[in-house]
Amino acid sequence: MGGMGGMGGMGGMAGMGGMPGMMPGMGMNMLGGMPSMMGGMGMPGMMPGMNMGAAGLPMAPNMGGGCGGFGGSPKGMGKGGKGGDKKKQATRRGKKGGQDRANSPTDVADVGDDDPNRSEVLNMVRREGTTKTKVTLSAAMPYALEFSKDQFGSRFLQSKLDECSPEEREQVFSAIKSQISALAGDVYGNFVVQKYFDIGTVDQRKEMVNELCPFIVKLASETHGCRVIQKAIQHVPRESQLQIAAKLKEDVAACIESMHGNHVIQKCIEQMPPDSVTFIIAAIEADPQKMACHMYGCRVVQRLLEHCGPEQLQGMLNRISTNIERLAMDMYGNYVVQHMLEHGRVEDKREIIKVVERNIIEFSKNKCSSNVVEKAVEIATVGEHAALLEAERSSLMFTVIGDPNNPNSPLKQMMDDRFGNFIVQRMIEHARGPERERLHQTLQQSATLLQRSAHGKHILNALKKEQAS
Predict the structure, then answer these.
(1) Cα separation, 393 vs 377, whole angstroms
(2) What pTM was estimated for this model as a whole?
(3) Distance between CA atoms of 169 and 2, rounded to whole angstroms?
(4) Cα-based distances in Å from 15 to 10, 23, 233, 340, 344
């Protein structure tokens, strides 16, 4: 597709989903707009889902969404561009890699960095380096909370927790448990909390959720806290997931519209059984048009379409399907329409294809809705319900092709359009039978004109490739 099909996988900053608006995984795995659009759990100004090691943070897990949220790059980016000089590109890449290595943080603090307010044990770790220090975990144990909040101390604890005994892990856990909620929102402490969700016992994970529960909504909307809540949802047992969901329900709409909170909501949809996310569906159904056009809300709608059955989403689908024309031309809503074509009911797909056919010229020349046209051609030909959409597909194809002798047919208007030409290429890929013959005939009659334009050359190349296959 010529566009950013399917935010989401923002999704994805996902990763956790991608965000519309920033480029949404977005993922802002935008944070993946992409909503990865960006991913959601990055630092402000960073693409969510980016590893924050380059910013000096310790061993950050990639929990953001990415452009995946949207699923591709926008038209005009990544298509039809020149490759450029490969040697120059390699040289630039080499220089950039060297700069990255030079700027990356080491595991040793600056000389003279000792602080009399720090414990001597932590100062030793900072001087000697987290991987080379002779300091043991037992020596650091009385200062576990201090270590957790320090850049180098946090790294030290994370590495030691991977290799220590269960008894030592329990000792560290006991030392920090009462401050879990504060550490969850701390720039370095959050990584220690995440580590315990990764390697801790079931009981330790449950205890952490109990400590976090009063602050779930606040943490979900914070840069570092949202990472911890997502990690918790991913690793805790069902009863603890329901505890988290009950707290999120108190302000779910705000979480959906938050650059960080939306990734927590997406994680709920991805990790919890469908019957546990009815509170999210209810929030979307309160104003589905608004949510579908929201840079973060659209990503949540897409996750629902992916993970919940049509019968559970009937109210949402019915209301969205009444406004397909507006959504298709919206910079975020078009991703929802594309997802409905892919994951919706047969009746939704029929209605969307009919709307596309009625608005074919306008849709084809619009950056956002042209993606919907491409997706409609694809889904009606090779999608899950293609056999049931044959009549709609045939009608759409012949409407686009029109009369070969008509100089203003939709096809001829699309051939040299910067967005429409991608649709023509997709039609070449999926046309068959009589429509294929008429399409090829019309394009061959226009070969001279196509050869003179950059967009036309792409169409001719696609035609040659298809004929040779």
Answers:
(1) 7
(2) 0.78
(3) 50
(4) 9, 15, 14, 22, 23
